[in-house]
């Protein structure tokens, strides 16, 4: 047992000397390898062949970074995109785990801090990976953080010329004629507003009017007029079944990115969409899974 303890102590001593004095190859000019000098924890000078073997064994187990194969030094940089991908997935998860906007933002901020600590800890524990891991975190955190900061503080105003239509209830069947039938005339070509509603606030204050307009060619357009809400990241325009304001409800129809958090704008509704299924227009924040604004659509 004493011999085993002595061996372990000498190995620890050699590792300490390696960390403080560099690689054993640098000792070759001053100390023969067969008579390597060191001190064990008790202060005893060790100058035998066995300690030299310990030095060679330790060198084999933990090679000096300068002696690592070039391919291995290059492959370590694969940790950079891997770290960035893991960080981005964490931001997506923390943003979607809760439908409460304030809680989702707090969890995302916590993930930023934890990811930074984990990157630094890994770099200190595995110095060979320190540079690529920390670089991956700094790059991804800078891009994601910059995007979130910009989209939540930058106001975008849309200036589209939206279509308008005659409310459907204003179209009345003509009275039955009592005299001779007049010559056949084609029906007037016009847009018809078939549904409309007023926006109400969700996680942020909102106002404006939403309407569905049918064009003479049969296509339908969803229009926002005098619309205004707060800026936010990854805002989407969606038609949701029923009275729900949850933009992830099964069967939800996504019409694309919000063109502006202020101003008039319009979105084309696919011809295959059955408007009888959709009663709510929602401005949905996909990054934090919350509704910024919603409008209940009713027959015009």
Structural class by helix and strand composition:
alpha+beta
Mean pLDDT: 79
Q: Topology as H/E string? A: HEEHHHHHEEEEEEEEEEE
DSSP summary: helix tally:
6
Tell me what portion of residues adopts beta-strand conformation: 25-35%
Q: Biggest sheet, in brief? A: 11 strands, mixed
Count every beta strand, where a strand is a DSSP E run of 2 or more residues: 13
Give the count of structural domains. 3
CATH topology of the largest domain: Immunoglobulin-like
The amount of helix comes to 25-40%
- Terminal CA distance reads 92 Å
Overall spatial form: elongated
What does the radius of gyration come to? 35 Å
Characterize this entry briefly.
36% of the residues lie in helices and 25% in strands. With 300 residues, the protein is an alpha+beta fold. The longest helix is centred in the middle third of the chain and has 27 residues, at 127-153.
Secondary structure: elements and pairs:
Layout: H1 2-21, E1 38-39, E2 45-46, H2 49-61, H3 70-75, H4 79-96, H5 101-125, H6 127-153, E3 157-159, E4 166-167, E5 192-201, E6 206-214, E7 220-229, E8 235-241, E9 253-257, E10 262-269, E11 278-285, E12 290-296, E13 298-299
Parallel strand pairs: 3-10, 4-5
Antiparallel strand pairs: 1-2, 5-6, 5-12, 5-13, 6-7, 7-10, 8-9, 8-11, 11-12
Word description of this protein:
Helix content is 36%, strand content 25%. With 300 residues, it is an alpha+beta fold. It has three domains: 66 residues, no CATH class; 84 residues, no CATH class; 124 residues, Sandwich (Immunoglobulin-like). Strands 3, 4, 5, 6, 7, 8, 9, 10, 11, 12 and 13 form an eleven-stranded mixed sheet that branches. Strands 1-2 form a two-stranded antiparallel sheet. Strand 11 and strand 12 form a beta hairpin. Helix 4 runs antiparallel to helix 5 and helix 5 packs antiparallel against helix 6. The termini are far apart. 24% of the residues are buried. About 11% of the residues have low confidence.
């Amino acid at each position: 047992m004493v011999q085993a303890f002595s061996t372990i102590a000498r190995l620890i001593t050699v590792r300490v000397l390696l960390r403080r004095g560099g690689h054993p190859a640098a000792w070759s000019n001053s100390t023969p390898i067969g008579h390597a000098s060191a001190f064990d924890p008790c202060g005893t000078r060790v100058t035998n062949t066995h300690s030299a073997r310990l030095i060679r064994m330790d060198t084999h187990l933990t090679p000096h970074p300068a002696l690592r194969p070039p391919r291995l030094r290059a492959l370590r940089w694969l940790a950079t995109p891997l770290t960035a991908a893991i960080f981005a997935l964490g931001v997506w998860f923390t943003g979607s785990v809760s439908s409460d906007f304030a809680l989702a933002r707090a969890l995302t901020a916590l993930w930023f801090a934890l990811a930074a600590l984990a990157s630094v800890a890994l770099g200190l524990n595995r110095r060979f990976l320190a540079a690529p891991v920390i670089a991956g975190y700094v790059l991804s955190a800078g891009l994601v953080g910059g995007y979130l900061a910009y989209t939540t503080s930058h106001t975008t105003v849309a200036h589209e010329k939206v279509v308008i239509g005659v409310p459907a209830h204003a179209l009345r069947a003509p009275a039955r004629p009592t005299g001779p039938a007049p010559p056949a005339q084609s029906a007037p070509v016009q847009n018809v507003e078939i549904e409309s509603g007023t926006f109400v606030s969700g996680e942020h204050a909102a106002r404006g009017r939403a309407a569905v307009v049918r064009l003479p060619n049969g296509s339908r357009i969803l229009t926002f007029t005098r619309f205004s809400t707060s800026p936010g990241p990854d805002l989407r325009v969606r038609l949701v079944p029923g009275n729900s304001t949850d933009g992830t409800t099964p069967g939800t129809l996504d019409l694309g990115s919000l063109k502006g958090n202020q101003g008039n704008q319009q979105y084309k509704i696919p011809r295959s969409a059955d408007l009888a299924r959709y009663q709510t227009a929602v401005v949905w924040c996909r990054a934090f899974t919350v509704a910024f604004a919603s409008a209940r659509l009713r027959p015009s």
